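Task 17 of the worksheet. Students: predict the tertiary structure of the chain below and write it out as structure tokens. Keep your answer in the requested format; marks are given for formatting as well as content.
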Amino acid sequence: MDIATIAGIIAGATVVAIAILLGGDVGTFVNVPSMLIVIGGGFAATVIRFPLKNVFLAFGLGAKVAFSHKHSDPKEMIDKIAELAELVRRDGPLALDNLEIEDPFLQKGAQFVADGYDPVFIQESLELERDQNLARLDEGQRIYKAIGDAAPAFGMIGTIVGLVQMLSNMEDPSTIGPAMAVALLTTLYGAVIANLIALPISDKLGTKGKITDVSTTLTIDGVMQLAAGKNPNLIREMLVAYLPEKARAQMAAAEVAALA
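Model answer:
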């Protein structure tokens, strides 16, 4: 579970709820037609821009990325690849056959090496899987961004509709205040959906895409070095380029301490 996402949504919803409770009756802030305009209109605008199947897939992908936290540490990946390289150097590529590896992408690459596939095929296959995964994350990000754009827009549309209805019935001044409140609720709903749900998940998918790009590219480079039978130390030195500067310094310090 990603505690940050859950805590952020709960905190945001709590702030809004407290503001509502301090201001008066909760029922005043509930209006079904306003919800239908924002949710229905936002969904309709999104499926116009994207295939319906992709929209539903993006909902599941966004929920998975937002609420599940799967840590990917490049340093741990480098250590694992170097460990596999040492195994290959000692026992040959067949030592990787059916080896249990936690990361499924690395396991797939290691199995390719164990099966003796051509290096060109291995690289093309892994790069294709990486690119397809990144494409799904990118489309999911764009879909949530579209929802985040459409929800406030339809909130404004609902407000305009409510104002027109209010102004067309001005005979009873006592109804103007409540009617104005209902008209403004659509703007509230649109802003909450966009800024508390859709846009944060869109940004989360974008961040996930960047992390996935780095980790899978690192894995592909490592697998190709495994296929070439390179020295584990050489592989480690090559893959260190994927680490941030601080992590490189920490790894170098650890290696010096191990040799001392």
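Marker's comment: The chain has a mean pLDDT of 86. The chain is about 80% helix and 0% strand.
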